[in-house]
Specification:
This protein is α/β, with parallel strands linked by helices. The protein has 15 helices and 9 strands.
Length: 447
């Protein structure tokens, strides 16, 4: 009587099948809601996952593979189970380290626990005082002190005029504003990043856990959206850190969809990988600058380089048509407001003040370096002022329409004591900004 061949029990293979099913379901859901593998790690992992799935299917169809899985199944099962347990324990430990050091929200920050001292060169930044301390806390937020019990907590969001790279921690407009608020008390943290515009601000407002513990936000915006549009660089985000920025053409509703679909499968974002990236970032930490220029925060040499480019360029009084730029800017402003409402955050905007004005003294024009266009010409100072006025007016009108407070800093325009270049504040300028924002913030604190 013939003996029917029986394949040995393949427990290890079935464990692998269950794991693949779980990972496959999660990956499938992520693909359905818009995730696509990006970067070497995600692409490699995706290819390995597909390869392993095909080999597993083949193991059920090819007799030799079935027999191979049967041999040493007990040892292989123990190895797989112990490997899974080890990976889970290691990932749990990495998660504990991330949680302990609060390193889970680096987007829109320079990183956690930075302690830098800058010494501005008087040849490049004659109005700035030496030394300048630039520090961040364990969550990557710049502030002169930790929040006190009972204080409202606010974050300021913006580009370089919010970051105030060349002002000491205690001299930024945020620090000045915080000292003016007495009753009720308020703590104000700074998450401004040089070069960031409303594309990145939307990403931050949509998803950053840093906003889960604050009461409100102050946004000083406009100039980076302006220069990127006239330079044709809205899609070339030099300072982008993490996820894809929202394109200017999307509507506020579409922006929300893009931001909320940023989910990725777990295997692309384990705590171990996040911890590795954090440690690598901290090891290589520098204050970033545009390509082919010196680092921000060295001593001000980058401003000398930028000014030389403007001096050598051809100037034009012809301001490009800003219609498309202003339309997309307004869409992004609406998205910022929508995200603030969704997260139940109080919100205040400020316009962007500048040194630019008609008939600016030549000695003051030498401080300027903005205005590059797509054809490498530079806008005249008067044309630059017309453009930023248009962006500021767009913000003011939208805020009025939505009954959102907006601090108009137009009174600061053209005052040389307030700026060390086109738009970045001196200590006196930061004090003027804080003085202007103070009464508006005071009314928001009482609500």
């Amino acid at each position: 009587m013939p003996v029917t061949q029986q394949h040995p029990t393949r427990i290890s293979l079935w464990i692998l099948v269950v794991l693949l099913i779980i990972l496959g379901i999660e990956t499938g859901i992520a693909l359905l809601i818009g995730w696509r593998p990006e970067g070497i790690i995600a692409h490699t992992g995706f290819i390995l996952f597909i390869t392993l799935a095909l080999l597993t299917i083949a193991s059920f169809k090819i007799p030799r593979l079935q027999q191979a899985w049967g041999r040493g199944d007990r040892e292989r099962t123990l190895l797989i189970i112990s490997g899974i347990i080890a990976i889970l324990l290691l990932d749990f430990g990495a998660g504990v380290l991330l949680q302990r050091h609060n390193t889970d929200a680096f987007f829109h920050t320079r990183g956690a626990n930075i302690k830098k001292v800058f010494h501005p060169d008087p040849d490049y930044l004659p109005t700035m005082h030496d030394p300048i301390h630039f520090t961040t806390n364990a969550r990557g937020i710049r502030a002169p002190r930790a929040p006190k019990p009972g204080e409202e907590q606010w974050l300021t969001i913006g580009g370089s005029t919010t970051e105030c790279m060349y002002l000491d921690d205690t001299k930024t407009w945020q620090a000045r504003l915080m000292t003016q608020q007495q009753n009720p008390g308020v703590w104000i943290g700074n998450v401004g990043i040089s070069g960031f515009d409303t594309h990145e601000h939307i990403q931050f407002m949509a998803s950053s856990p840093l906003l889960d513990t604050v009461n409100g936000v102050i946004l000083q915006i406009g100039i980076n959206d302006y220069w990127r549009f006239i330079a044709g660089e809205e899609e070339k985000i030099k300072y982008k850190r993490f996820q894809e920025a929202v394109t200017p053409e999307v509507t506020p509703i579409e922006s929300d969809v893009v931001q909320k679909s940023g989910y990725a499968p777990y295997w692309t974002r384990p705590y171990m990988l996040q911890l590795y990236r954090v440690l690598r970032r901290e090891r290589n930490q520098v204050i970033l600058a545009p390509p082919k220029e010196t680092h921000e925060g060295i001593g001000g040499e980058e401003y000398h380089i930028r000014r030389q480019k403007r001096v050598a360029a051809t100037l034009t009084p012809d301001l490009p048509d800003l219609t498309a730029g202003l339309q997309s800017y307004r869409v992004r402003l609406e998205s910022l407001i929508a995200h603030a409402k969704r997260r139940n955050l109080k919100i205040i905007f400020t316009t962007q003040p500048v040194l630019w004005k008609k008939d600016l003294d030549p000695s003051l024009e030498e401080r300027c370096w903005f205005g590059w266009l797509k054809d490498d010409r530079y806008l005249s100072i008067e044309a630059l002022r017309q453009g930023i006025d248009a962006y500021n007016q767009c913000l003011l009108s939208l805020c009025e329409q939505n009954k959102i407070p907006c601090v108009n800093l137009d009174s600061l325009n053209g005052t040389d004591a307030y700026f060390y270049d086109d738009c970045h504040f001196t200590e006196e300028g930061a004090q003027a900004v804080a003085h202007a924002i103070h009464p508006i913030l005071d009314t928001r604190l009482s609500k």
